Amino acid sequence: MKNLHAFTLLLFLIIIPIFTYAQEQDQNERYFKIGLAQSYQPTFEINNNSFSNTTSTAFKLLIHEPDIAPVELGMFITTGRNSTIDYSYGISPAYFMYKGKSHWFKTGVELGRFKLGRYQNDVVLGATLEEEYQEALQPYLEWDWQISNYISLISKAGYRFISSHTRTVTEITDRWENGSVRSYHAKGKNHFYGAGFEFSVGINITVY
Fold first, then answer.
1. Strand stretches in the chain, DSSP E
2. Global pTM?
3. CATH number of the domain where residue 111 is located
4. pLDDT at 180 over 90
């Protein structure tokens, strides 16, 4: 992921001067954008673990086709937050509530998954087993300030929910010769809970 951050920074350092000094032309409603955003979570909860003042970095691809509908489709990959999470990824459809010359307001939802780097999967009697991937949903509001035909600054606020599934080991039915668990019974349970507010700022660059 360090290579991804370095590549993204280099990409922006190359593209920003080109588009900043390019000749102005009529703005096209249809677009394809790349974006980089930094997020802050005052509190963040996952699998009954709470974290304070976490940050994350997201790389985004955004597509808008006005002939179909006043919506935007985004795809993202995010790193950061805390050491228990490797990364997250997903899609983020959004609807344009207002689209002026310089200011756009959108409402949308992020639908994604967290890839956990650390989670409970040791099978012992009474243990609660966690899954490697957690589903996430975040409704949000976003303000886009179009400072040129090619560059916009964004500010976003949302609240994230997480859906997960755990299993509690109720019985160990068989073991291998070395003592490790061969088979067991477990009781499953679904969880849906609020993970916390998230605030983001970032930059989007139009490449088409």
1. 31-46, 49-64, 71-80, 85-91, 94-99, 103-116, 128-129, 133-146, 151-175, 181-206
2. 0.75
3. 2.40.160.20
4. no
